[in-house]
Amino acid sequence: MAGIGPIRQDWEPVVIRKKAPTAAAKKDEKAVNAARRSGAEIETMKKYNAGTNKAASSGTSLNTKRLDDDTENLAHERVSSDLKKNLMQARLDKKMTQAQLAQMINEKPQVIQEYESGKAIPNQQIIGKLERALGTKLRGKK
């Protein structure tokens, strides 16, 4: 058994210490009172808005009036009636179903339904795909 020498005893002392107190333990009432009794210097300060919920509610009050005064009706642009009629006519001329057209342009059938019903938000990429698949111009002049 090469490489094994005489077994030696390690007589170095091993010191096990308690962990230093955490920040929460230092702020504990017992710890503060003990520090006062021992004559240690203690600093106390009150934090701004400590223990209140003013910071959370103050930001909304600035915008609340502006939102209440806002009377503008915001709505997304929808597909024009000309586009939906042109799309439906071109699809029927090619004798295709909505599902077939959707598969042809790699979209869901629901997208075609939304365009034909006028509920879709116009996407120029999808309209371009539809024009190429149907071989006709759907938007603008024919």
From TrEMBL:
UniProt domain HTH cro/C1-type: residue ranges: 87-141
Keyword flag DNA-binding: yes
TM helices/strands, residue ranges: none
Any one GO molecular-function label of the UniProt entry: transcription coactivator activity
Keywords: DNA-binding, Transcription, Transcription regulation
UniProt KW Transit peptide keyword: no
Gene Ontology CC, one term: nucleolus
Similarity section: Belongs to the MBF1 family.
PANTHER family associated with the record: ENDOTHELIAL DIFFERENTIATION-RELATED FACTOR 1 MULTIPROTEIN BRIDGING FACTOR 1, OS08G0366100 PROTEIN
Protein name: HTH cro/C1-type domain-containing protein
